[in-house]
Amino acid sequence: MDANTNALNWFEIPATDITRAKSFYETVFGIELQQAEMMGMQMAFFPWEGGSGKVGGGLVQSEMHKPSAEGAVIYLNADPDLTTALDKVESAGGQVLMPKTLIDEQTGYMAFFMDTEGNKVGLHSNG
């Protein structure tokens, strides 16, 4: 891997109900996800500005995508303060698994939530 290359270039969060999952993430993050069908999969894309070094991703509903609370965990950027997103999780139908927790002064804060599809997802912010 080139030293200037991100370790992550794309992520997919599995969904069993793309409409429900899209609504959850739009509510929690105050964003709009663009929905499309690609290669027989229902997808909803997080806002993303393409280009070198940028990471994008989305929600995906297909036979191959199974929500899970185990395995790899992604951390979504919730800067400047993850409390804003975390406070919306339960009213949007999810569950807070770990409250805002200080990692250290340099790294910032983290939290975990369970989304409406049964995925454990992390949040990170500097504040």
Biggest sheet character: 4 strands, mixed
User: How much helicity do the residues have?
Assistant: 10-25%
Shape: globular
Low-confidence stretches: none
Mean pLDDT, nearest integer?
93
> How far from one another are the termini?
31 Å
Biggest sheet strand order reads 1-4-3-2
CATH superfamily: 2,3-Dihydroxybiphenyl 1,2-Dioxygenase, domain 1
Text of the CATH class? Alpha Beta
Beta-strand percent range: 35-45%
Per CATH, which architecture? Roll
CATH-defined fold name: 2,3-Dihydroxybiphenyl 1,2-Dioxygenase, domain 1
Radius of gyration based on Cα positions: 15 Å
By helix and strand content, what is the structural category? alpha/beta
Number of domains: 1
What report would you give on this structure?
With 127 residues, the protein is of the alpha/beta class. It has a single domain (10-125), classed as 2,3-Dihydroxybiphenyl 1,2-Dioxygenase, domain 1 (Roll). The protein contains two helices and eight strands, in the order E-H-E-E-E-E-H-E-E-E. The chain has helices spanning 18-29, 83-89, and strands at 10-14, 34-38, 41-45, 56-61, 75-77, 95-104, 108-114, 120-125. The strands form two sheets. It has a four-stranded mixed β-sheet with strand order 1-4-3-2. A hairpin with a 5-residue loop joins strand 7 and strand 8. The mean pLDDT is 93.
